[in-house]
Design a protein that fits this description.
Strand order of the largest sheet: 3-2-1-4-5-7-6
Mean pLDDT: 89
CATH topology: Rossmann fold
CATH architecture: 3-Layer(aba) Sandwich
Number of helices: 7
Order of helices and strands: HHHEHEEHEHEHEE
Helix content: 40-55%
CATH class: Alpha Beta
Number of domains: 1
Structural class: alpha/beta
Shape: globular
Strand content: 15-25%
């Protein structure tokens, strides 16, 4: 194993949120990112309809289902397989494909309350390549949300500071009444990732 990989693995093993996830039966350390944002901003309520894009291994879907309860519906979609989660529906596929979107929406009786996404593209390590890919993926998530959210619905999405960030932020602000950024404690300090929280969808 290369030294860089060994250093990453050591940080991962010693990470407080990784340890808590293992202890508390959470799917991933990412669970705590969503929990911390929810504790601050009160995103979800029992009975809500939520789609989790890029859901594997299931950290966000797990948290969302715990909050919305039996009367709520959580559907996750990912290109990767996800081990079953009690009460969470899962579709393996590309959320941008019409057939996958139809499958997702078939689980709901009406429009969505929230679209959440902790996705990132396959990273190359070259910012000039990775950043445009990340922003393009965010735009696709936004288009999905525009098609399926009900008025007043919300979007929580991971993106990265860099080229295209401000332009994407403007797109969100033209689509939602309230947009704020969040950097939860569980997000590693050295990471450029930031979570954009958009509320009150403006139906067009």
């Amino acid at each position: 194993m290369a030294k860089k990989d060994k250093n990453w693995m050591q940080r991962h093993v010693n990470d407080r949120f990784v340890q808590e996830a293992n202890k508390e039966g959470m799917r991933s350390r990412a669970s705590y990112k969503l929990l911390q944002i929810h504790e601050r901003d009160k995103l979800f309520r029992p009975g809500m309809n939520i789609v989790d894009l890029g859901c594997a291994p299931g950290g966000w879907s797990q948290v969302a289902k715990q909050i919305v309860g039996q009367k709520g519906t959580v559907v996750g979609v990912d290109l990767l397989e996800m081990d079953p989660l009690q009460g969470v529906h899962f579709i393996k596929g590309d959320f941008q494909e019409a057939e996958v979107q139809s499958g997702l929406i078939s689980f709901f009786d009406g429009p969505l309350d929230w679209v959440i996404s902790d996705m990132a593209p396959n990273l190359t390590g070259h910012r000039a390549v990775d950043q445009p890919r990340a922003i393009a993926l965010c735009e696709e998530v936004l288009y999905f949300a525009q098609d399926h959210l009900h008025p007043k619905g919300g979007l929580l999405i991971k993106t990265f500071h860099g080229e295209g960030f401000e332009e994407f932020l403007k797109m969100l602000r033209s689509t939602f009444k309230k947009v704020v950024s969040r950097k939860p404690e569980a997000s590693r300090g050295e990471s450029r990732e930031v979570y954009l929280l958009a509320k009150e969808f403006k139906l067009v």
